[in-house]
Each structure stands twice: as structure tokens, then as C-alpha cells.
Amino acid sequence: MQDRTHLVDDITGHRRMRRNRKADWTRRLVQENRLTVDDLIWPIFIVPGSGIVDPIAAMPGVNRMSIDKAVEAAREAAGLGIPALATFPNIEMELRDETGSNSLEANNLINQATAAIKKAVPNIGVITDVALDPFTSHGHDGILRGGEIVNDETVDQVARAAVMQADAGADIIAPSEMMDGRIGAIRLALDAAGHQNVGIMSYATKFASAFYGPYREAISTGGLLKGDKKTYYIDPANGTEAIRDAALDVEEGADMLMVKPGLPYLDICWRMKEAFGLPTFAYQVSGEYTQIKAAAMNGWIDGERAMLETLLSFKRAGCDGILTYFAIEVAKILAKR
Ligand code: PBG
To answer: Which residues does the Swiss-Prot or TrEMBL record annotate as the active site (predicted)?
Structure first.
């Protein structure tokens, strides 16, 4: 009578996937994707004042920092080898208005932060967003007129804001407001101002997502937002439309592309990388971070393993890097390996 092993071999023809999984050394040898510190971009939140490190309730472990503290954080990040920061301002409510006019103040909070970070830590990249939501009294990413987020006027304004951000020292402009034609307009404006070396990382496919909730608390736009952003962000149901949208950004001169949120859109990461071959990044957004943190804090999952698994998944999906609030935490873990 045949034993069970022979029955299995008859079926598999002696092919056994488990041979390569049998020991730590074989697993290391055949590992296809690796996460390194070079893959990380750290998003941080800036507030006015000094000496401030203000915890964000909906994002345990993440703080809003005044510029002096952000400079210290940038120094720590650079010391760990993190290539770049992405900065977001939480400005005073009195400064927010219908058109987001503070975005056009050369010396506004975000530009001051860029200048201070680049002066103290010149070797870390600074990536700035040009969407208007931190500056508007209604929390939308563009100018609101007659119940509509007006496209062309917003593009005009974000292009001018981009030049000011570059003047302040921003290395990469990352427009997240999803207006049509913004990449081309920003490229022209940057070049006209002599900023040929400032890159553009397009938030090429930004979906109308529930996962941005904690971010809106972080920059205090949640309570302000009237309606939703479905007239300018992409419908989560649409993958092909997302690729067509990204194609326009590539044509208009984007240097790098981003997919946002991350984990629910790994298919988009893969399709973007396949379609264009540009450096492609995923934004593991606030709600993705919070899901892992909250479950871990309750003892329901192993937070560290879940964090590393999600970040590695972005690499497997073709991403060159990840914007993640875990950046410092994961950089410390990677340094110990
Ligand atoms: C808006 C913007 C959003 C995020 C960054 N910039 C989305 C939004 O508020 O609609 C989300 C980032 C995150 O959730 O971590 N321009």
C-alpha cells in the first residue's frame, strides 16, 4: 500500500513549494522584495509657535510640531537615513478664508518651516503640498465659488503658491488637489521662475476616500468641510479612469507619481508602474495608520508585524517608496536588522 507522501508526489510531480521556505536562510535567500529606509517619506504636521509637540488624538504617536520641533524631528529623520519629509500646516483659523489666500503669503507657516528645515538639515528632501485645504475656511482643496470648486482659477493659484514654496527651498512640489491641468501649469510656473531643478510628485490618483478622516483632525479641516470632495477626487470604483488621469500628469511633466490612499489601491500602484515606469509612491494615509495603531493598542493585532507587512506590500505592488506616518518607527527597526 502507498503511504501519503507518495500520493502527494503523484499529484505534484515532485514539485514542492515548501523546500524554499524550510529555514530562515532559504527564506532570506529567495526573498523578492525588501523594505529599506530609502523607501520612506515621513509626513509631518506643523503648527505656529515654538516648543510645541501636540499629540493628535486620532493618530496615536503622531504630533503636530512647531517649526523648532519640526527641525529637531528633521534632524532625527536625516540621522536615521530617511530621504525626505512631506510637510502639512495647521494654520490659525483667523487666517483661513474662502480663497485660501494665506497660501500666497511668501512667509506663511509652511514656507517658514521649509526654510528652517532646509537651513538646519540641508540633506533631507522637503516635499510640499500645494492643495488649498489647509488655507480655506471651507476645507476644500480649491477655490469655492457658487457651490463649485472652480478649476482654472485654483490651478492659477496653486501654480503661484508652488513658486513661493520653491523660493522657500522646497525640493519637490506635490499637488494633491486634483484639479485638471495643474501639473503642466506648475511646471511652466516653476521653470519661468528659474526652478528647473524643483521636481513634481503628482498625487496622480487620489481617491475620494474615508481613510483621510484623522488627517482632517490633524490640520483641523474636518469640522470645516462642507459636503465632500467627489467632484474632484476619483471614485474608488474606477481603476481605468485613474490610469487615464495619471497619463495626463505624465504628459504634463510629472517626475514622480503617487497613489493615495495606499493599501486599498495596490492594484492602481501596479497598473501605474506598469503603464508609465515612473518612480511611483503610495501614501499610506492617516486612516490606514490609525487602523493598525488602534487594533494594536487593543492587543488585537501585532502592530509591528502589521506595519512591516503593509509597507512591504507596497514594494511588492511595484512602488518605489511610501509616504508613511510610521517612517521614524520603521526606520529604527530597520536600523537594528
Ligand atoms: C488634501 C489632503 C488630504 C490628505 C493630505 N492632503 C485629504 C483630504 O483631507 O481630503 C490626506 C492625508 C492623510 O489622510 O494622511 N489636500
So the answer is: 206 (schiff-base intermediate with substrate), 260 (schiff-base intermediate with substrate)
